[in-house]
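Wait, can you check?
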Amino acid sequence: MATPHRDAPASVEALLRIVTAEFEGLSRQLKVIARHIEQNRDHLGLEGIQDVAVACGVQPSAVVRFAKRFGYSGFTEMQRLFRDAIAQRAAPSRDYQARIRRVIESGERTLQPVEIAQEFLAGSIAGMQQLRQGLDAAALETAVALLAGADVIWIAGARRSFAVAAYLSYALQHTDKRVGLFTGMGGMQDGQLRSTRRGDVVVAISFAPYAEETVAMVQEARRRGARTIAITDSRLSPVARGASALLLVQDTSVFGFRSLTSTMCLAQSLFIALAYRLELDCMPHAPVKAAGVPRR
């Protein structure tokens, strides 16, 4: 297959989005490599090309072919993204400072606060439009049905996703469901996980670079027989694998900072749809009058 002419994605997140979009069109070997990268992104920056090839059961040339398929000159250039991501996670505060400096160094030294706000608002509106157009109606219906049928609902979301998880936990308290929020506070996440049972539903919220805590919670909950609803950004996401319902959402990035606007809107929609369903289920059904049939 000829390598498409394209600009190489500038971040791990952007690369994974493109890989996901084109996954079905990849060869068998490239699919294996794609899965390895998705599942081992936290280690890829430290692996040599031979390590990747052995883990995937392919020749190193196939790994190079994968990198070139997505616009890179070779494995080394693609790997640099993953190394940078490791460095950013190791020093998140410095990463924020670096992103601010990049905005300044790009020549945007005279941005006023209102201009920054306008950029974020425009990005959020674009993300909401994308979500509106691409929302999977069947997946949302399945998610609502799962929540409606569950006695116990658990919410998992860490770091950037914690705000959405906390909101869902708060909102679901307004139903008669038993609701638990995986927080890991005090290192007691193992005790929380032991409370999950078959028939429970876990809502997992995570985005690249996917919080390890959330991934581990989802895997253990599934092992215990709980079903999962994944709110994430990729079909190859580790929380998406084995999910009973997959809700995909892509929040926009402005000045290198990702918003939560679309994700929060999706979470609110999920709760309101559930509340509507539960209220309907509680209402007595009025008899339906057949058209043209007189009453006796």
Observations:
- The domain at 12-90 is CATH 1.10.10.10 (Arc Repressor Mutant, subunit A).
- The radius of gyration is 22 Å.
